[in-house]
Design a protein that fits this description.
Elements: E1 2-9, E2 16-26, E3 34-43, E4 46-56, H1 62-72
Antiparallel strand pairs: 1-2, 2-3, 3-4
């Protein structure tokens, strides 16, 4: 299982506040090459769930899996590259 925690950390005090949490787990239904995963993401009182099928687990990373799970949950649709700071584009 992969656990994702998003925290806001105060630069002065170092105190942190959890903003959201997610989990991605293997369903056990894939093959050695292609994984099948389910995910849940929680933010405040909202919950999103998603499925990732045919994930090429030997070629891709956990970051790819997270991105696909977020996209499948509809959470990446609102994020646009044009909205990123110019230094990151």
């Amino acid at each position: 299982m992969i656990i994702i925690t998003i925290e806001l950390v105060d630069a002065k005090t170092g105190q942190s506040q959890e903003l959201g949490r997610g989990q991605i787990w293997n369903t056990g239904k894939g093959t050695q090459e292609l994984g099948e995963y389910q995910a849940i993401f929680k933010f405040d009182d909202r919950i999103w769930m998603s499925n990732v099928a045919r994930f090429r687990r030997q070629e891709l990373t956990a970051w790819h899996l997270l991105a696909r799970a977020l996209r499948a949950a509809g959470l990446l649709a609102a994020a646009r590259l044009a909205e990123a700071p110019a230094a990151l584009v």
